[in-house]
């Protein structure tokens, strides 16, 4: 049984960055990774067209100016292979790999209250013990796949976008079906359409999307950004979602219709996700949101020539931004091709799979390959996959049965010496997640090193603090339009999941200030104990 000061679970961006931060603070750490490769979601989501919709310069680590200067991104929005190369480069460049155990899927982590130690078992029976357990499991990493009647009888191939096979799939001569029209489905559609004999996109909910305006990065642009990288990073850290965009100052309806149109037009072409910040109230006020939504509907409509198709592909059941919009590279245009069709499964649901394909109530779609681009059990899904047992034998799944409870998105009461990165109660999916990861990783590393130096055996979020923070997260969400629509922000993506708003919507800057304040107040909201609570209780009982 190997002992390590901190055991990190997951070798994606969060796990590797946390490992680096801990090592810098002199804390030993090992990362357990289920896969045979590092990279997390960027290792698994290898579907054609997979790409990040945050700009390359900003979807990267800021902890090393040498790294920033050395690495050359090739496009404005990085592809999955390029991000995976970057992650591998970082692992080698900073000698992180030797602290990563691959093929180590954590089945169970249990807290020994007397020893204040986490004991972790992987699926192949290996065991580790650690003072601190750090969960870096991802927010969109537990794939959600439907189970249709007859699915097993399908004679063709079923592929899940989030666990895409490593070997190349040849779509030529194949009839392909994609189920799901979130970012994954929208990204892969135009790419697969180019080679497939026929492509059917099965849409349940139409999604907002902006054109990606992707382009190769020129040497001039690369040099310009690298000359002022520190300034750019500062701007990013102080922008609401960690993307560098500052919200406009004037409210939507305070300007004339012409000015409004001009402002929306400008951000539509230049900003990608910044579109939501053209005016400060687009995600806060229904009237403002209706204006932005209408503008985007018109823009999407202009990309679809066929009026019947336009009616179906343009969303009309929710406001822009209340669900995660997409940034696409030719999604709507793909439907103009002769080999691409839309199947509206809201109107005509999928009844069953047959050996030949998918049957809806209007007939059979003959298919050779079906792709599930059906998303994830978001934010809590991956955290609840392993059996995590805290004090008094309580599991994390039991503790969070009515929704996640966290002190500052960091930790939960009853699970001492356990923290999570980019989990519920933190900006996570509402931010450029690398910004959130770096913020938390450095904060945790400083905290763990300090508590070690101070001889603290156990730290634990208090119930009062986690209740207060979780209520505050809900209250901030109520100031927005995010609860108006079912989405993976609020548990609406999985039947039976508690409907609570999970990410913190107050922005990365405000979140950072909260973390700083917590540390300055001697880790307010946490109990710090020089000996484990259980040992203290035993001693008290002996002396009684
Ligand atoms: O998943 P999603 P995703 N039958 O949940 C449909 C990040 N990401 O993998 O809305 C039929 O958005 C579902 O329909 P509905 C990014 O944060 C980023 O696409 O439930 N359909 C929806 O259309 C993104 O937002 C990038 O009615 C079913 C789709 O599947 C997040 O990951 C790229 C269904 C799921 O959409 C998730 O994106 C990719 C069923 N049973 C992902 N179940 C970039 O950076 C679900 N659906 C660009």
Q: What does this 3D model show about the protein?
A:
With 544 residues, this protein is of the alpha/beta class. It folds into 2 domains: 2-142 and 378-543, 3-Layer(bba) Sandwich (FAD/NAD(P)-binding domain), CATH 3.50.50.60; 143-207 and 325-375, FAD/NAD(P)-binding domain, CATH 3.50.50. It is 32% helix and 17% strand. The chain has 16 helices and 20 strands. It has helices at residues 13-24, 41-44, 65-70, 80-93, 183-195, 219-227, 229-237, 257-270, 286-302, 307-313, 331-334, 396-399, 433-453, 463-478, 508-520, 533-543, and strands at 2-9, 29-32, 100-101, 106-112, 117-122, 127-135, 157-160, 175-179, 198-203, 209-211, 326-328, 340-344, 350-353, 357-360, 363-366, 369-372, 387-389, 418-420, 458-461, 526-529. Strands 1, 2, 3, 4, 5, 6, 17 and 18 form an 8-stranded mixed beta sheet that branches. Strands 7-16-8-9-12 form a 5-stranded parallel beta sheet, with helices on one face. A hairpin with a 3-residue loop joins strand 13 (350-353) and strand 14 (357-360). Helix 1 runs parallel beside helix 13 (433-453) and helix 13 (433-453) packs parallel to helix 15 (508-520). The chain is globular and about 80 Å long. The protein starts with a strand and ends with a helix. 49% of the residues are buried. It binds 3-acetylpyridine adenine dinucleotide.
């Amino acid at each position: 049984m190997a002992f390590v000061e901190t055991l990190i679970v997951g070798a994606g961006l969060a796990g590797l960055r946390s490992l680096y931060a801990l090592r810098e603070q002199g804390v030993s750490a090992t990362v357990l990774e289920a896969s045979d490769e590092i990279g997390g979601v960027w290792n698994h989501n290898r579907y054609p067209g997979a790409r990040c919709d945050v700009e390359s310069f900003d979807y990267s680590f800021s902890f090393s100016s040498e790294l920033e200067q050395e690495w050359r991104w090739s496009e404005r929005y990085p592809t999955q292979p390029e991000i995976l190369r970057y992650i591998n480069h970082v692992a080698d460049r900073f000698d992180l790999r030797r602290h990563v155990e691959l093929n180590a899927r954590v089945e169970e982590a249990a807290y020994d209250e007397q020893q204040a130690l986490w004991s972790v078992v992987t699926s192949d029976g290996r065991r580790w013990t650690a003072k601190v357990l750090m969960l870096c499991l991802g927010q969109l990493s537990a794939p959600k796949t439907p189970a249709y009647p007859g699915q097993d009888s399908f004679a063709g191939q079923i592929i899940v976008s989030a666990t895409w096979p490593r070997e190349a799939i040849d779509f030529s001569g194949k009839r392909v079906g994609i189920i799901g029209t979130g970012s994954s489905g929208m990204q892969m559609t135009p790419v697969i359409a180019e080679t497939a004999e026929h492509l059917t996109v099965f849409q349940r909910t139409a999604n907002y999307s902006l054109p990606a305006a992707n382009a190769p990065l020129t040497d001039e642009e690369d040099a310009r950004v690298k000359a002022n990288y520190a300034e750019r990073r500062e701007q990013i850290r102080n922008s609401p979602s960690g993307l560098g965009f500052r919200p406009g100052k004037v409210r939507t309806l305070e300007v004339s219709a012409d000015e409004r149109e001009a402002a929306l037009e400008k951000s539509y072409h230049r900003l990608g996700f910044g579109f939501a910040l053209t005016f400060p109230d687009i995600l806060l006020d229904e009237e403002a949101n209706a204006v932005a939504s209408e503008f985007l509907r018109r823009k999407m409509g202009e990309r679809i020539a066929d009026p019947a198709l336009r009616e179906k592909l343009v969303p009309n059941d929710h406001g822009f931004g209340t669900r995660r919009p997409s940034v696409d590279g030719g999604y709507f245009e793909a439907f103009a091709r002769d080999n691409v069709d839309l199947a509206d499964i809201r109107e005509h649901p999928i009844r069953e799979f047959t050996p030949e394909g998918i049957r809806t109530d209007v007939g059979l779609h003959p298919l050779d390959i079906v792709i599930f681009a059906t998303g994830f059990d978001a934010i809590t899904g991956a955290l609840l996959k392993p059996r995590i047992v805290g004090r008094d034998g309580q599991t994390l799944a039991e503790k969070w049965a009515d929704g996640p409870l966290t002190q500052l998105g960091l930790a939960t009461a009853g699970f001492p010496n356990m923290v999570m990165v980019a989990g519920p109660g933190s900006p996570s999916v509402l931010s450029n997640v690398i910004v959130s990861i770096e913020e938390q990783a450095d904060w945790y590393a400083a905290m763990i090193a300090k508590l070690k130096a101070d001889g603290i055996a156990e730290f634990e979020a208090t119930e009062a603090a986690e209740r207060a923070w979780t209520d505050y997260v809900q209250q901030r969400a109520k100031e927005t339009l995010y609860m108006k629509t079912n989405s993976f922000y609020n548990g609406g993506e999985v039947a039976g999941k508690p409907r609570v708003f999970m990410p913190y919507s107050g922005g990365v800057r405000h979140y950072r200030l909260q973390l700083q304040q917590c540390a300055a107040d001697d880790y307010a909201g946490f109990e710090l104990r020089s000996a484990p609570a259980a040992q203290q209780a035993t001693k008290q009982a002996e002396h009684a």
